[in-house]
Design brief:
2 copies of one chain form a homodimer. With 198 residues, the first copy, chain A, is α/β, with parallel strands linked by helices. Helix content of chain A is 40%, strand content 13%. In chain A, the strands form 2 sheets. Chain A has a 4-stranded parallel beta sheet with strand order 4-3-5-6. Chain A has a two-stranded antiparallel ribbon with strand order 1-2. In chain A, helix 1 packs across helix 2. The longest helix of chain A has 17 residues. At the A-B interface, helix 1, helix 2, helix 3, strand 2 and helix 4 of A face helix 1, helix 2, helix 3, strand 2 and helix 4 of B.
Amino acid sequence: MDYYSRQISELIEELSKLPGVGNKSAQRLAFYLINRPMEDVQKLSDTIIGARKNVRYCKQCWTLTDQELCPICSNPKRDRTTIMVVEDTRDLAAYEKIGKYEGVYHVLHGAISPMLGVGPGDIKLKELMVRLQGDVREVIIATNSSLEGETTAMYISKLIKPTGIKVSRIASGVPVGGDLEYIDEVTLLRALEGRVEL
Amino acid sequence: MDYYSRQISELIEELSKLPGVGNKSAQRLAFYLINRPMEDVQKLSDTIIGARKNVRYCKQCWTLTDQELCPICSNPKRDRTTIMVVEDTRDLAAYEKIGKYEGVYHVLHGAISPMLGVGPGDIKLKELMVRLQGDVREVIIATNSSLEGETTAMYISKLIKPTGIKVSRIASGVPVGGDLEYIDEVTLLRALEGRVEL
C-alpha cells in the first residue's frame, strides 16, 4: 500500500486485523478516524484501553465485567438457585435483553469441540461444578444449537445428573415467524420430536 | 445495555459510532478487543492516535499524508504536467493500485452538491486553479460517475477551458465483464453515446 503514506497504511493494517473488517472497510474506518475531531478519537482510544485493562471475569458467573461481581450477580433480586449456562457473554446479553429470566448465569467461554481440540478442561466447567455445591435447584443449559453446543449440553447434563439437581435444555425447533418451507431438515425433525400436546 | 458492565457498554457504544458498525458488530469487536493481548490493543490505540495527530493534507495535491508532501508528489519520476482530479484519497488509491498512471493527482475532498449545500468553495478547487499556473498540459477529471461527480466535472471543465489546458474525463460505460442484462439504463445509454469506432 505505498500509495498511502506510512501512518495511514499502518492504521489501515491495524484496523483490518479486527474481525469482520476487510481491507475496504479498514480504509473507510481509517479515513473516518483521521477526519474526526481529536477529542473523539482520543475518547475511542481511551475507552478501548480502559476496557481492556479493567474488564475481567466475574468471580461468580465468569462473565466479563469491570467489577469483582457482574451487575447480575451483585443484584440481590436475582434468583441464585437457578443457573443458566451459556457459551459466552453475548449469549447472556441475548437473554438479558428479553428481561424475563430472573435467575443467574454461568458463562463457559466456549463449547466442547473435539474438532478444534477444545476439551471440557478448556471451558469454565470445573467452576460450574464448584457453584453447584451451593443451593442450586435447576441448571438450564442454553449453549448454542450447534454440534459443539449440543455436545457440551450432553456432557454437562451427564455431569450434573448424579448430583440430583434438575437439568434442562432450552427448546429447539422452528423459530417463531419461521416459514417451514425454508427451515432445514434437522430443525424440522427436532421440532417434530419435541412436539408438545395442546 | 445494563446487562453489560459500564466499561463494556461504553466500549460498545464508542465502537458503534464507527461507520458501517452496527450494535451487533460493535459487541463482537468489543469482546474481541477485550480478549486480545494488551500490547496488541495498545498498538491499535497508538496507531489511531498517531495517524490522527500526524496525518494532514499534502501541500501540493491535498491528499492525506503524514509528510509535507505525499509519496506521489515527492516521487521525481511522476509526470507533473498531468493532473488527475479525484474526489478523495481512496479514489487516488484506486488508480494507484493499477500502477499504470504516471501523472500526479489533485484531491478535491468532496464534490459539488447543491442538494447537500456543497458549493465550489467547499472543495479544493481554488487550490487546483493555483496549480494550473505552473507547467500543466492535461487535467484528467476522475470524479465519480454520480450526479455530484458529473456536476463537479462539468464545473471544473468550464473553469479550465479558457486557460487552454487540455481537459479530459475518464470514460463512462459498461464495466468490463458486465452483463448488459443487469446494467442500468443510464449506463447503457452512456455506453451507446460514447461508442468508439473499431
